[in-house]
Amino acid sequence: MIKHNLKRRSYGLLFVSFVCVCLLHAPAQANKRRGPVGAQRAVVVDERLSALRSEPSLTAPLVQRLGRGRAVTIVGTRQANDGVSFYRVAVTRRTRGWLQADSLVAPARAHDDERLLHLIQGSDDFDRIARARIFLDEFPRSPLRPAVLLLYGTEAEEAAARLSHDAVRRLKEPELRAGGAPLHSYFLNFNELDRYQRQGIAFTFDQMTKQFHYDGASWRELVRRYPRSPEAPQARAHLATLSGTSER
Question: What is the distance, to the nearest Å, from the Cα of residue 22 to the centroid of all Cα atoms in its chain?
Fold first, then answer.
């Protein structure tokens, strides 16, 4: 009996010790999941400036260059002697460095949506679409969202015209007919569409004119969610044009 009681006490002490260790360890694990105190999520929007460096200086050794759309965590800030501001960022658990602040936007920081809109407006072609996509993903509640939705769709429709020209030039009809697949399937599989589709752009194809058209998703969102915005009439006009095209 005495031996049995001692055994039970040993198990009890072991259980209490285990609980204490867990309670002491839990805050550390929680802090690890949350990341550094005050950390902010940020996204690369200007790959021309996104050189990750070992020190906050434009002449410091390069660690790596981050691509547009890469998410990082801001863990510190510093201004260099030449006035350029840098963020200390965590790219992965093991990779950290300094990025020029102008290369990033942080959704939690005031006015970063305005700064990104200015960058979008100054961009052309695919760069405008890619940066607009980042805006739409990262700033879902920004009052500037209607303007970006309009720009995103307008640039997509302009891209459709360029893509149509390239597709007609490269996809020769005799070769397509020899392949045996439906003619429109070659156009909708045209490889130049791929990078646009990765940015959320969908195109339709008019077999009569052999023209691509943007499907109008951003304009429909604009009209549905922001019907009284200054951009809504332009979006409605674009949708009316698309409707006329599809009825031909």
Answer: 38
Could you count the other beta carbons within 10 Å of the beta carbon of residue 247? 6
Helices (H), 82-199: 112-121, 125-138, 145-170, 173-179, 183-188, 194-197
Nearest of 120, 122, 123, 125 to residue 136 by alpha carbon:
120
Phi, psi (degrees; rounded to nearest 5) at 171: -95, 100
215: nearest Cα among 136, 148, 152 = 152
Q: How confident is the model at residue 32 (pLDDT cuts 50, 70, 90)?
A: very low
**Model confidence pTM above 0.85:** no
Full strand arrangement of the beta sheet holding 51-53: 62-65, 51-53, 96-100, 85-90, 71-79, 40-44, 104-105
Tell which residue, 132, 104, 103, 127, has the closest CA to residue 117: 132
